[in-house]
Amino acid sequence: MTDLPDRTAPRGSSRTRFRRFVDDYRTRKLDARTEGSGGSGDKPSAPTSRRAYIKEYARWLRPHGWAVGALFVLALVTAGLQMAEPLFMRFIVDRVLLATGLVASERTRLLNYAGALFLLLIVVSNLLGAVKDYRQRLLNVRVMLTLRRALFERLLHLPLPRLWDMKTGGILSRISGDVDTTSGLLQLAIVSPAVSAIRLVIAVAILMTLNWRLALTALAILPGIVLISLISARRIRPIYRSLRKDAEAVDGRVGETFGGIRVVRAFRREGQELLDYLRGRHTILRKELFAQRREMVIWTSWGLLLGVVNVVIVWYGGALQLQGRATVGDIMAFQWFTFLLLNPVWQIVNSFSELQRSLAAMERVFELLAMERDKPDRPGAVDAPAEVRELTFDGVEFEYREGRPVVRDFSVTVPGGSVVALVGRSGAGKTTVTDLVARFHDPSQGRLLINGIDLRDCKLATYRRLLAIVQQDVFLFDGSVRDNIAYGRHDATDAEVEDAARRANAHEFIERLPDGYETFVGERGVKLSGGQQQRLAIARAFLARPQILILDEATSNLDTESEQLIQASMADLLAGRTTFIIAHRLSTVRRADLILLMEDGRIIERGTHASLMAAQGQYFRMVQRQAATAEQGAESLLD
Please, what's the b/e burial string for 507-535 (b: 16 or more CB within 10 A of its CB; e: otherwise)? Predict the structure, then answer.
């Protein structure tokens, strides 16, 4: 069961979802379901996990050790100066204002000296506090930037199935919202509790020195309220963890909605998408209010405590003053010190409450950082060969799900510089074979060799330098035409970019764009037609000068005339390159050196176009069917 507004979740109003959430919260099911969520494998117990994450955060702070130390010093000096403030007030009241043995002029002189020092103390204390706050924010920014860099780098190298599971919204939620939420962890988990504990010890010592009776009275009611507050704060953490998961799901659905806005509008689903979004956001809002109500109990309790302690000090202190056991200055100083005493205690409790929110986000950040990278280089891995002489599939099998192979007993040797065409019905495993060539996946069984070297023994980065891919579903970035063509070679000159565009039959339409090669194409190239997008992708492949080229329905979105023009320049693109072509139009693979007809993940026929046609097998029948279909289409157009 889940509270997420996802298509796999049970439908229901936000009220229904919230009630399920409250039931889970009260029965502690929420703790079990969300504790350690997001990781893989065995989940650690909550205390072990929490200690591990805080320890990991401390490791990230280690390079900033000097900055953390300076922050501690500033915090302690500021706290020490603040602790001296009530003593000045006590001196002024008892030794100046209420001193009966001093003449008026002496009182005035002492008052001016004490007042000036008091003012200087407050100014210095606040200036140091401002410097401390700035240094703390600066340190937070540096740690957050380091975390974001590491998180983004890890996301770029995660296995594709993990990225698909997280979706775009989940990725953005972790790299933005979660990192932002952890920004206060340095203050909440380290600086504030440590400094507050020191201030607490100093305040108690001074209070006991001034008047132990008043001190014991003020301290008597603290332990109970602190214990209740800490227990209440601890129970808030699962709520925020659930909130982060809900926000990730809602953001992910928003990304899907606008990524598929054409489908949404075509099927008139705008109203339903809006309703689902509001349900998700209403559920999140209800949970936020649920958490805030529990936090308000803590805040209200501390406000009540502060008022009660002040009344007790004035009441009991007044009685002691009437008995000659306390002075007016003692009472006033006590009230100030009591505030300085309760304030650090409140900061510790509040830090613990806020810490739950940061810990919930921090767990998600470090869980992701702990995920294994996609295909890490083996020990002793070597650079991939600069020239491809041979690619060999040796009994390759691959399965996305255990026990369900999509490529079976795939064995073929591809000489370097040759063109291999993969044909067959949809779902035959053609794209999976090219994904294996690109090392998006590794074989579940068997080996894929380059010049006799297992691809898994090559450094992934050096092998990927040999590749260029043109897919049917072209992806263009929201940049200029020039940037998209030069995506694989940022050092390319303008002349090289233009030459690649000419070879891909793209130069003429680019020149007609408002700003030529500097025209922005929009997100995913939405400002261009499908054929224009595909020609830019082909130009990108031209410019990359790859050793291994993968064309997955690369000319499927082109009209017949543009396809014929590009086919003429394809010979230049394919020359000397090991090329894998996936095409449903069999007319585009006639010149391939080797045609592999696939069915159910296996090779059922192989050979050149001429040899396969001569064999009159399944390939022959496919060609005949396509030719007949093309003739019927031409006749219908003439009619």
Answer: bebbeebeeebebbbeeebebbeebbbbb
pLDDT at 9: 42
Strand pairing category for 548-552 and 467-470 = parallel
Alpha carbon distance 359, 236 (integer Å): 11
Q: Does residue 594 sit in helix, strand or coil?
A: strand
Under DSSP, the state recorded for 182 is G
State residue 596's pLDDT score. Answer: 92
User: Nearest CA to 602 among 473, 452, 472, 425?
Assistant: 425
pLDDT recorded at residue 234: 66
Which two three-digit tokens encode residue 91? Answer: 């001196």
**Which residues have CB under 8 Å from 62's CB, separation 6+?**
none
In a 3-state reduction of DSSP, which class is residue 307? Answer: helix
pLDDT tens profile 386-415: 888 899 999 999 988 887 889 999 999 999
φ, ψ for residue 366, nearest 5 deg: -75, -25
Three-state DSSP at 241 gives helix
Beta strand 445-450 with 419-424 is unpaired
Rounded CA separation 369/597 (Å):
42
In this structure, which amino acid lies at residue 240?
Answer: Y
Q: Where are the beta strands (DSSP E) in 440-480?
A: 445-450, 453-454, 467-470
The shares of helix, strand and coil residues in the chain, as percent rounded to the nearest 5, are 65, 10, 25
Neighbour count for residue 210 (Cβ, 10 Å): 20
Determine the length of the chain: 639
Query: Mind listing the domains of the chain with CATH numbers?
Result: 14-369 (1.20.1560.10), 471-545 (3.40.50.300)
| pTM given for the model | 0.64
Those residues with Cβ within 8 angstroms of residue 188's Cβ, 6 or more apart along the chain or in another chain: 351, 354, 355, 358
CA 334 to chain centre: 49
CB of 482 closer than 8 Å to CB of 518 = yes
CA distance 467 to 497: 18
Which residue type, as a one-letter code, is found at position 87?
L
Q: Which helix (H) or strand (E) holds 363?
A: helix 328-369
CA distance 253 to 173: 12
Q: What is the pLDDT of residue 636?
A: 44
pLDDT in tens, 233-288: 667 767 777 777 787 778 777 877 776 776 777 667 788 888 888 888 888 888 88
End-to-end CA, the chain: 59
Give every residue of the chain whose pLDDT is below 50, as ranges.
1-10, 32-48, 633-639
- Cα gap 368→590, rounded to integer Å: 47
Distances in whole angstroms, Cα of residue 489 to Cα of each of 63, 449, 503, 539, 636: 34, 26, 17, 12, 46
The string over 593-602, giving b where at least 16 C-beta atoms fall within 10 Å of a residue's C-beta and e elsewhere, is ebbbbbeebb
> What pLDDT is attached to residue 397?
92
Count Cβ atoms below 10 Å from residue 563 Cβ, excluding itself: 21
The pLDDT value recorded for residue 393 is 92
Dig out the tokens for 237 from the structure.
């953490």
